[in-house]
Amino acid sequence: MQLSWSQPCSMIQLLLVSNLLLWECVVSRPMCLDIGYKKLFLQELLDRATVIAQYTSNLTMQMSEEFDENFAKNLEYKARNSSTCHTASLTTLEINEQIQQTQSDELLKVMISISRAWYHPLEHIVCEVAARKGTCETMLSKIKEVEENQELLEEMKGILVRVHPGAEENAYPAWMGLAEVRSDNEDTHHFALSNLLHCLRSDTDKIVTYLEVLKCQVIHNNNC
């Protein structure tokens, strides 16, 4: 039977059937499409976090080298050990094989703990470097930029929530080096700041490495 606009009930029925068929097509789509969209969104988060981490790592390298050149190049004791860093108590991974075998949630928790452990030390680094005579504006601006760049921590928290909903963050170590940083002894003061910057450089490098491994695990199923 041919339908006409004078048959409103029939037209409504036709529209309902069409919408039902369209809905069935939508519902019957493979679930992998939705999973693929989530993976794409997660990859964007990881890419952003990696870019921020690499940029921060580059800044800390420049800061460390500039500070040593201006204030610490004449120190008799130049040797440094990562065990003197306040983040040394964290279970960090140094060997590439160990990093790759670590679960993604643990990698994220370690990265968040490292980032949070630097909140107060960075505040004091900015104050002390700003107070030093001879500090160039470029070095000070870099340190302030690293301090203000807390979005990396927020990015990692967002990734943790999406990858492992309900996961709890690990505790982070307190920094106990304020007395050395504020020491009246110039050598002690300079070495404390120099060591802090070297530790910061080491920790930001770790975060970059961990993010690359995490991306390989979560996005590429370890096929990297």
TrEMBL record:
It comes from the Eukaryota. Keywords: Hormone, Secreted, Signal. One of its GO terms (molecular function) is hormone activity. Residues 1-28 form the signal peptide. GO terms for biological process: female pregnancy; mammary gland development; positive regulation of cell population proliferation; positive regulation of lactation; positive regulation of receptor signaling pathway via JAK-STAT; response to nutrient levels. It is found in: Secreted. GO terms for cellular component: extracellular space. Pfam families: Hormone_1. The keyword Secreted applies. InterPro entries: 4_helix_cytokine-like_core, Somatotropin/Prolactin, Somatotropin_CS. Belongs to the somatotropin/prolactin family. This is Prolactin family 3, subfamily a, member 1. It comes from Peromyscus maniculatus bairdii (Prairie deer mouse).
